[in-house]
Write a structure and sequence with these properties.
Protein name: YdbS-like PH domain-containing protein
Structural class: alpha+beta
Number of strands: 7
Helix content: 10-25%
InterPro entries: YdbS-like_PH (IPR005182)
Strand content: 35-45%
Radius of gyration: 15 Å
CATH class: Mainly Beta
Number of helices: 2
Domain YdbS-like PH: 32-87
Pfam family, one: bPH_2
CATH architecture: Roll
């Protein structure tokens, strides 16, 4: 029996859906469902979520945030996540500045933790 419980120390930073092709995304099966936690980044894309990916936060090598003047006026932005052995992940949606700040804090705190063997 499989369960979808989160570990008690895992908290959700952001969960949502992006539409890369705007209003045509549902017709082209081109939406992306996202879940960013303090442990991992999960996303499903393709027709009916046919492709699923997970990136561990510890694998992140760099984070970028960018927004144009129009995006700034509308409260949107683009978060780019660079991870080891994974192509860059770009998320463009509303409220991305706050998500970038939270993810950056989590990422920096995981970098400062020293593993004890």
């Amino acid at each position: 029996m499989t369960t979808n419980r989160q570990h008690s120390d895992e908290t959700t930073i952001w969960e949502g859906t992006t539409w890369p092709l705007g209003c045509l995304s549902p017709l082209c099966c081109n939406s992306v469902r996202w879940k960013i936690t303090n442990k991992r980044i999960d996303y499903a894309s393709g027709c009916c979520g046919s492709s699923e990916h997970t990136v561990d936060v510890r694998r992140i090598t760099d984070l970028d945030f960018h927004r144009s003047c129009l995006q700034m006026c509308s409260g949107r932005g683009t978060l780019t996540i660079h991870a080891a052995d994974h192509p860059p992940i770009c998320i463009t949606t509303f409220g991305m500045r706050g998500i970038y700040t939270k993810l950056k804090e989590v990422w920096l705190s995981t970098k400062s933790v020293v593993a004890v063997v």
